[in-house]
Amino acid sequence: MRMKIKTCLGLGLSVMFLGMSLVFSGCRVVETEEGLMFGNKLVVTNAPSEPLLDDKVEDKTPSLNQEDDKNPLVKNEEQPEDETIGEISSKNEDEMSNEKTSADGEITGSEVPSVEENNIELLINERTIRGRETKGIYIRGSLFARKSNIEKLFELIDETGINTVVVDIKDDEGKLLFPMSNEKITKFYNSSTHTDSIDYFMQGCKERNLYTIGRVTSFCDTVAANSFNSLSMAFEDGTLYSDHSNKKWIDPYKKDVLLYILSIAEETAKKGFDEVNFDYVRFPVDEGYSNIVFGDGTVPMYDKQTMITLFAKQAVDSIHKLGVLVSFDVFGIVISSESDARNLGQNYVDLTRELDFICPMIYPSHYANGYAKLVVPDAKPYDLVEYELKKSAAKLEDAEIEAVKVRPWLQAFTADWVEGHIEYDSVAINKQIKASAEAGLGWLLWNSSGNYSKDIWNQ
What we know:
This protein has 11 helices and 16 strands. It is an alpha/beta fold.
């Protein structure tokens, strides 16, 4: 059999991640008559001719509605663990919520209208308009352990121009924010949750007319991988894969993994969030990842980009039924580097076409010195963000896709590991905001500690 060898070499761009330099290295790809070999796994490269998880797969979860035969599926850098939001500290007091619980232990509170009580199309349209005007911040789930932190978060919001909050529903370790009773979740989740105060938080957001986004970390999930090895990415000898920060990953080529993540997203939507944001919807790129043995026979072995794009389509089809929007986080580099996009499994154009919003992480510290002819991109926050958003707009225009579907993540932390870095104070952050605003886009600020100065909104 004739075989051709292709080598996917990235641009060699260093990505500053968790204080380390992560380089997207090349991957050896073998093209055969049947398809491509990624590492030691044959994948299908043609467009899907059958559902990823069709109705032959036993699944009795009504909320994932698999009756639509058009569905092809079953349908960052870290900073010091300073748990603060402005002046909020999770270490101040141990004040917990007095929320009432139902007989089965599920939290009760403000009722979310059912699908039947709403006009779904109107909800989608209204939320789409609001989602294009975001001025938001990320809040880590562990901060919700104390009700007092939620109150201090609202104080910060009341004194600034924040109109959007992004909250961990499933964090980078895989821990859930609030209890969920869906059996597709409880089957694979046996850890504690961050808070019993979710209804208190949602009521406060509603009173302030905030646009709420629930962040679901997808395939990076140490909690699930350690507890249920059958879900994890692993090597041929059964050893679990760990990335450079010792985090475990779960395998998107396994039916139970997809159902688990989609069920969490659905519970997020039912809590009243306006949007579900999927992060880590990609494949790992650390050394050794090419030796992972993917799949268990329950999901067709599509190539990486096709797999992630199909997952996006399924997520939209499922979550839209509840009147809630869907967004994906992607590395900013996939806007310009096709090889890195292949390695990660993130096709920028295809994903943007499927999703309500795509959120490229355009952190200047993510780009190697010299990128875009900038000596130190981290020291040029306006120039870097402007450059990337212009490239994004041009790429999407060529594909006849609206640029307003883009909502960038902006850097709200100082990357002291970058040679020639600058302090990301309110001035540096606002330079990024200015570039985003000039592109006619909303934006989200990322600080993994949830530490935001009020001065940002005084500029």
